[in-house]
Write a structure and sequence with these properties.
alpha+beta, Alpha-Beta Plaits, 6-stranded mixed beta sheet, binds zinc ion, 2 domains
Length: 311
Amino acid sequence: MKSPGKLEKVGPLRPLYEVGNMKEVYEFRVQEKYASRLFEPSAGEKLGWTKQFGDKFVTVRKIELSADDPKFRRVGELNALLQKNRDDFFFAGWNINRCYTASDIAQARLFLLCRIATFEPAGEECGTQYDESAACSSCKSKAKQVSPLFLDWKRIPKSKDIARTIAGEVVVSKRMVELFERHSITGAKFGPVCHRPTTSAESKEWFQLLVKPGYAEVAAPTKMGINPFDEDVTGQYRCSHGDLIGLARLSEVSISRSSYNGSDIIASRQFMGTRRGLLRPERFLLVSPKLRQLIKKEKLTGCEFEVAHFV
Ligand SMILES: [Zn+2]
């Protein structure tokens, strides 16, 4: 766990909430070959691995910055410049880590379940069937799963209690299901996880997490975009039907209070992501303080939590 460090005033780049000493730290995977344009050789952490991004293999360095660091803006400028002039990029990946005070956590009434451990192959590659005709004609969100979830059991991370495929299919361990049952957690049901290739065998260790309908409405000031410097003003990743709201999440999530049905776990009506290859847009998952506390107390692993807000 990173130290929250010195807490800062909420600035213009931050959402304004009633409660809040939350500190955002932006984490970038900067291409090593360009890192010296902005950073000292000793800055950040050389990850020492090469990863494929699109058709490129790149070596990256992990750099952490707050939004009020003068270098933060330069990261965005360099990225735009490299895209324009070389069809390349300054950073290959990014993340926003949010640190909270104990008081922020104590006062929160809802949490976003996020950064779920991810694995491949996706269900579709293992025989899971979808009815694409049920999906939005424009953004392809909401395709309906019409078969049990087929997965390669060996590829589900054994050390986790919750994990998702790259297509957003979420599975939970037997321990997690038992916790839900023992504490009468509301809002979820569980489906079987069958083994590839298509057989009738159902896992006794893993179950698909299916959140019941009764969706939460994502509301302003939730900010979506392509990356921290690109809020997708042209709406490339937003659907005119209002179901797909963006490629990536740039802020904490806010939910319309009147849309919340009080369940311990609830999904958003809106989707995030894109439909490409095996990738499918996903709903946000939100949980009650009770469920978050139980997962923490029982040391179940595979996800993180952020404070979500009611508006
Ligand atoms: Zn749509």
